[in-house]
């Protein structure tokens, strides 16, 4: 619904019900879905000369117009000022001059004095020409007031404090009657007149009154000055004036002083300042009156400030003030927010407090129950209204129809609709709209479209909710002809093309009839849509999301608008939508249709397509886009590098990924984000680049990237062997202190590093942490057993082997191999043999590492027969010796003084395609030298150098 915006054409507006909460003059509920004319029932603030139609100067309470009351002029006399409302509804400003004696009543005030006073007010010289002033004077003998009319011109203020040019009395003529000897009543009358026309002139005259001692005990003048200052929103000055009023002029603060300030806050919806003045009023122990509460509650109802409304409402009840509009506002606020239980509680409170409802309050109560579908209670409210003598208006009937619609009791809704005629009322636009909504909600297609057409034939216009309801109803019932009608009505009503398309695609998409949208639009709005970029984008996006790619591509080909930037963003959004839904082929089709620029390709689209091709494992296409980017004038940013690196990682081309990272590092302005750092660490780890891992780790620290759980685990897993052990311990402790959880891989890496570094105390702490968190697996035991085995700590090694079995894990082949290697290198051959027997009883399948350990141990001893047996067993199992096996055998033959067999092994390796490494040559040369074949050893040494064999080689 938010997307449906109706642009109302210029001209006379449609008849609408007055909003009961549109201004503080009428405080009441906002009836949802209602816009019919309300019967002339109003509650206003008596005494605000700024309100159009109200003519009372001083605020003394509320006035109420009953339904049957005739419009009569209202007037009030206070402090020598009279304001009245003419019988024709026009506003008349009047001035009453109180004169002490008959002789002075008609005495002329010198024009020169009036000119001086005028100059003292605004600082500008004025003409001394006297103009007629409309003066009310009481005739001798107590006869009715006579008045002297004069032409009006000047500025007056509307209800929002804005100035507008109208005919009015001339300020100079008013001031010409004032001198330092004038009475306070005369000065106040002049101040009233000036305040209506200009805040500046009124405040300047107020300063003149202060200088001439006219403010002592003159609370009325302060009230007018406060309101003039309030219209200027000079709140600091208003606070100072309140203080001056009490401290200097010895005036007592009352509700009127604050009501003027609050009134301006209400008009301009300044709820914060309205609240401040009310709190100050309470702090100074000034008793609020009905006007205070009514204005504030109306303000909070407009702004939706529930907390302050509740506070003000509670204070009202504590002060025993009975303001019916406050209860109405409170009930309305709760109803708007869906707090229906509290709305009903407020109704109970109102009854308990003995507050008599007015027409507005009855309507508010009725709305509470109808919004909930509690129609029995709503009917009781209607009966109570009739019993109290209120005549039911169309708003009451509309509210009841809405309630029946919400409760899906459409028979009663229709009955209420039919009863309007017998009540002497005619259905208005809200009546028809409510009927459309009710039948539409109940999915009553025939009835809903019937009332929709009756609404139009009655001369009314459907609202946005009606359009939305009807489109959804037509979509569910597959009525394309009716859809043409409603779409045309929406266009006639001034709905924007994009709003119409949005409503249409949502309705038909929900109904599963998205394929019907294009034929419907081609019948009415298609050409207009092709010229509107926003409408096209909405429609194309909806088609892509519903996998109607052909329709989307058709619109993209036929569009008439031209905006390259908007078009690129649209294509990018469509490609991303296909990518997120896994429709990679659709993304490629959209990309292939997109207009492309060879010199300025869209970086974001290219990156997205590289990612799409990577997911499709079309790495050649992804790399082509990357090379096109490099060849263009585009400058790659961090996101582009991240996507390209990830593409090479998925393609398992880690060297190319490292090349891209090296190119990125040359651009000093690029700082990787967390995800790119993770990719860098994993890539360098797989490539075994310990120096790069160390540099990346310190780059992470320098860039102050926020480390989360994944980052900490990745740093420890990847950089654990590239940074000092102390630094590794620091980062691990920091991770634990920040409450991040480790994973099994992280703990196993720490165990391995601490074990190899001989830090067994730390290793055992890590093991205990892993066991406590339930993260111990068979690799954890293998790692700590290997660490103790390598250090020769057989007691701890056997202890953890036993713990491994106690934990329910079988002793693994890796653990047995560690034990074999440890006992064999330590020369404890009995334990070595015992482990072999355990492995055979456990039916462990020996791997290359097991046989190599046996070959190495037997070879060191020179037990060639045992070596031959192991080698035969190895071959009998169909397992060929690997490089490590050959290195071990060559060394064993050298120890056994069998150099010829060692040389034969070299020839066998060549036949099998196993390339010898540096260890192979070293063992062979040592075997020849040990048997005094020095010439042959030199030949092999020279051959090793010629072949360029370098590196550490395999273990020996």
From TrEMBL:
SUPFAM superfamilies: HCP-like (SSF81901). It comes from Urochloa decumbens. Belongs to the PPR family. P subfamily. Pfam families: PPR, PPR_2, PPR_3. PROSITE patterns: PPR. InterPro entries: PPR_P_subfamily, PPR_rpt, TPR-like_helical_dom_sf. PPR repeats lie at residues 358-392, 393-427, 428-462, 463-497, 567-601, 637-671, 708-742, 777-811, 812-846, 847-881, 882-916. This is Pentatricopeptide repeat-containing protein. PANTHER family: MITOCHONDRIAL GROUP I INTRON SPLICING FACTOR CCM1, PENTACOTRIPEPTIDE-REPEAT REGION OF PRORP DOMAIN-CONTAINING PROTEIN. NCBIfam families: PPR (TIGR00756). Keywords: Repeat, Transit peptide. It comes from the Eukaryota. Residues 1-22 are annotated as: Disordered.
